[in-house]
Specification:
Blueprint (H helix, E strand, L loop, with lengths): L4 H23 L12 E2 L6 E10 L1 H4 L6 H15 L3 E6 L5 E5 L2 H8 L4 E8 L24
Parallel strand pairs: 1-5
Antiparallel strand pairs: 2-4, 2-5, 3-4
């Protein structure tokens, strides 16, 4: 019994597809790496504080129905600091949702790639550059009642 050419081609294509699928499933295919490390803002600057980071969380990470924002931020901060091997230092819940933590640079890079994190910034030393004497904007001691 001889098969016609179109039928042979169809069988050959089906066999090829089956073998290719089996090779990927059995062989495992290419190795899949973990998520790429995230970027740390201001890392390595002259004023960087080694091992100290500010972590700003995405709004979606701290918006939980029925849970106050401060509580949700605190819970997420503790969880992330623990997951990435950091020590929670300070919690921020007013101007932004986030925290400061001590951790290794590699842990901070992994944390920066977490989907709940907006960004990670390395803490910086801040210096007073100058002072101004005789400022015209100085506090005069008046209260709002006397300014009416």
């Amino acid at each position: 019994m001889t098969l016609r050419t179109p039928v042979r081609r169809a069988l050959a294509a089906g066999l090829f597809a089956a073998l290719a699928t089996a090779t990927v499933v059995v062989g495992g295919g290419p190795a899949i790496a973990g998520p790429p490390p995230g970027e740390i803002r201001l890392a390595g600057s002259a004023d960087a504080v080694p091992g100290s980071y500010l972590v700003v969380l995405k709004d979606s990470a701290v918006t939980v129905r029925g849970v106050p924002r401060a509580a949700a931020t605190g819970g997420k901060a503790r969880s992330l600091a623990h997951t990435y091997g950091g020590t929670l230092r300070q919690l921020y819940v007013s101007a932004l949702s986030g925290f400061s933590a001590r951790m290794s640079e590699s842990a901070a890079k992994r944390l920066a790639a977490d989907p709940a994190v907006a960004y990670v910034e390395q803490d910086q030393v801040v210096r007073l550059a100058a002072t101004q004497t005789g400022a015209t904007w100085a506090w005069t001691g008046s209260t709002s009642a006397t300014c009416r």
